[in-house]
Give the backbone structure.
Amino acid sequence: QAVLSAEQEEANRQARMAAQKREEGRLKRMEQEKANLAARTRDNLRCPIVVIMGHVDTGKTKLLDKIRKTNVQGGEAGGITQQIGATYFTKDTLLAQTKRLNETEKFDLTVPGMLVIDTPGHESFTNLRSRGSSLCDVAILVVDLMHGLEQQTIESLNMLRKRGTPFVVALNKVDRCYSWKTCPDMPIRDALKEQPEGTLSEFRSRATDAKVQLQEQGVNSNIYWEMGEDDWMNSDFVPLVPTSAVTGEGVQDILLLLCQIAQRKIWKQIMWHANLQCTVLEVKAIDGLGTTVDVLVVNGYIREGDKAVFCTLDGPVVTEIRGLLTPPPSREMRVKSEYIHHKEVKGALGVKVIGNNLEKVMAGTPVMVVGEHDEEEDIKAEVMSDLTRLQEKLSTDKKGVMVQASTLGALEALLQFLREETKPPIPVSNVGIGTVHKRDVTKISIMNEKGCPEFATILAFDVNIEREARDYAAEMRVRIFTADIIYHLFDQFTRFMEELTERRRQDAADVAVFPSIVKILPQHVFNQKDPIIVGIEVVEGILKVGTPLCVPQLGGLHIGKITSIESNGREQETAKKGSSVAVKIVNEHNPTITYGRQFDHTHSLYSTLTRASIDALKEHFKDKLENEDWRLVVKLKKVFNII
């Protein structure tokens, strides 16, 4: 016993020491990071990171291609290098591309270049995060001039506003204006001067429409050359740039504007500093290199031989960086030996990292390096912080669907969407990242046994599904919904839930009885027995086809079931309080029951309620009854002595 407690104490002491060491490391690191931040200057800027967002089919990818390929003569892109996950523009390229426009603008470029993220769309935006802060500096929101704002555009808008990311709006597809005269790659104002009067007026009216729609979303905007100095200084004012992704008018304007925003509005944010800010864009296996991780280094240095810490679902992975690669500037197919090796990389830059044990690294998570003065444990905890935070948020529900997403950012966006933006929220019981495997199907199929088959569902967002998993899912009665756009997934699931609720309602309709009290109008008796057809007035509640009626005054005499309700010669399903309708009442067990003999208009008819029918009402038709109807249910419970 004594030996045990001594060992225990030793273990406790060591744990305490480790915790203390970790804490010391953390404080030291914070201090160093502070010092690095203090050393920033306005002269040493890094490249701003740009991401392109917008609705499907507004021309995001085309615009991106146009921005990337401007000035490509003879296949060699002048100073534009294709990097891992991003395209890098040198300062010279930016100057060359905006030369014509800058003759009038006279703007002094001081940014060292620009980094445009290659994958358009908000997935990349949600993934560009490291330890809680957004990595994207400026955004281009593409709006189709012909269609105005669409659902996804609004979603992107809200995301940008929530993160406080400055953005320009590209009013794309100006070339679709009636009889537009193409002026390839010209600044947009020069191009507009060339247009006939009719085209100009169409352009103006459409641009004004877009402005109004943005205003409805609470965004003040103006065509950028009509903006005054005070608009520039006003942080929430958004410049509009008319562009054509097909013929390239206005692309110069966008590039110059992005540089202007970078230098005028967010220069504080893009001052380079030595703290490593680095995030994983994607993980892929490459022949001859094994598993590589594409990362975006925003600030700081990353060097070959560094001890780097990555984040996986199974905890932190520490590995030595065996190589840093960027693709060659030329555009041919890449052969293995073609990558350029770097000893060190300075942000902002996209680079491919080679190392061991990187298979499980998750996209959208931060990367950190253990320096000589750092405590490894502290760095590990810091790398995992995003995931730990998310897992706390994930305190998943006992019953719910399974959510599988491609990256941590996407998972977070999807969970937030399911929990906060869907009415009613969709409960989530399991989450995962990456491909859907057979074991995931097994995990969620338990919902069938738990008696909620509707949650035996996997919502797969932008991930692959193994063939084996698909077959097994069919066998285990697990549904897999897949989509690349969050709300398509949600639509599929809601549609399924609606059908299910409807099916359950139909099953319950035979049991559920809506509460009602009706009285017979003696001047409207059309048939006295088999079937009884009479005019009635609904005194209270809701009368529905299929409702059994009885007379409590006569000891609960069963009159029959309503088989049809007519009003003005038209059949209807229900009759509300206060309406007068004709009804047909059939009594299969006792066809001889006759109006005027066993009962007459002095007796009120009541819906026959039972415990089971009230339960069915509560479970499936809660939204169909008003408060006064529920009060009637309570009243009828007393009439029928239902406990």
